[in-house]
Amino acid sequence: MLLGKGKVLYSGAPAESKNFFQDLGFRCSENENIADYILDIASDKKNHKMIRTRMKQDLLDSINLTSARSEAYTLSQSQTLPSTLYSPSTKAESSPLMTENSVLSVSQSGNAFGWQIGEDKLKELNAMRIEAAQSTQTLRPHTHITMDEIDGDIVKSHRSILVEIRVVFARTLRNIVRDRSLFLLHIALSLSLACFGGLIFNHVTNDLAGFQNRMGAFYFILTFFGFSSMSSMDLFISERPIFLREIGAMYYGAGSFFLGKAILDTLLLRIFPASLFACIFYCIMGLQATTERFLLFSLTLVLFNVAAGAICLLVGVISSRVGTANLSATVVFLVMLLFGGFLLNSQTIPTSVGWLKHLSIFSYAFEILMTNELKGLILKFDAPGYPAIPVYGEVYLKTLGMDYANRYYDVAALALIAVSLQLLAFLFLSLQVPLHSTLADLDVENFKVARKGLHH
């Protein structure tokens, strides 16, 4: 017996359940378990009214057949048949308050209420027949049945999306606490590389070597956070079977699942490690010690790490395997690295591929870090064999094709890329939501023909 919201949707032999739902338009793939499939059908309230209508139609047919048989048997056995109904096996008296569900259950199982039915039961069956006919008056043959009419009678769920997000968020956080190796690895790598890199570039000088060290340090930081964000790709790949099963059973929506996962990944693996790295590295390296410049440096690392994580998130949602996702993300980051402003001068890029610079998160972040550090700084151009010449940092920036005035534009671009890619990842995730819980082949004309018997 299959129930939906306390109402019988199917009652009969398990082997016949697949044919029953296929007759209604549902299609079950050969590789899917029929038990899980019909549970998915029952979980979707949009399917209940159509199934119940079919059940009532079968009920009317069964009642008509039962009444004819019972009247004939009552006439032939009027002297011997008692006026109450007894079960052939237990002789137990049947309740006069038989519910609709119980009638549907017996009718669907093929019992047809047996053949020993008395006058009281005939009255009850007639009442049930009238009630079933009244409930299907709106489904007469000349009525055009649409999905909107079916959906109109559905009571909307009052479950808030915030509740779904909270449940998914709590479960994801619990899983991270139980298996916190990835989180601890991100923290350990951020701490160790911040100390290691800070010691290598410790007390950077204001000369030509110092200019080169600043460029190398900033690009090393961006490269580290770019490739370390590839851990986000496994966020949805490993749990995709669970996600498809649970969302097919309507435990939560795709938006709730995505937000619960993405928020935790952003907070624990993107924002926190980048902020920790910035605090340690900035002080040890000896960059310009002003609050404004430090905050802009930290904000740039955080936004860059979030944007890189969004890229990997999108690749992970699209890809079906981790190996494919790793290769795809590596190629994407290598192309972005090439147009980031360190390996290739932006002023010499061919116009045919110059637009790729605007898609590189390395280009925006590298310009912010360089202009934030070199603005107002005087560096000595001390080439070997030549006298040292003081040169303003702005001259070096212009040589690289960078402008200090673009820093806030670059910050906005990083934030926009991060948000846009996460929205795009959510869109692709939503497209993966299974559609088998709804009608696959809904044919209105078949409904009209099937309900002609109800009207007549």
UniProtKB/TrEMBL annotation:
Can you give the residue ranges of the ABC-2 type transporter transmembrane domain? 164-374
Please give, as recorded in its UniProt entry, the membrane topology of this protein. Answer: Multi-pass membrane protein
Cellular compartments per GO CC: membrane
GO MF annotation terms: ABC-type transporter activity; ATP binding
Where are the bilayer-spanning segments? 182-204, 216-237, 270-287, 294-318, 324-344, 408-429
Main location, first listed in the record: membrane
Q: Sorted alphabetically, which InterPro entries does this protein's record hold?
A: ABC2_TM (IPR013525), ABCG_transporters (IPR050352)
- One Pfam assignment: ABC2_membrane
Superkingdom of the organism of origin: Eukaryota
- Record keywords: ATP-binding, Membrane, Nucleotide-binding, Transmembrane, Transmembrane helix, Transport
Presence of keyword Transport? yes
Q: List the protein's name.
A: Atp-binding cassette superfamily
Q: Which organism is it from?
A: Plasmopara halstedii (Downy mildew of sunflower)
What does the UniProt entry say about where the protein is found?
A: Membrane
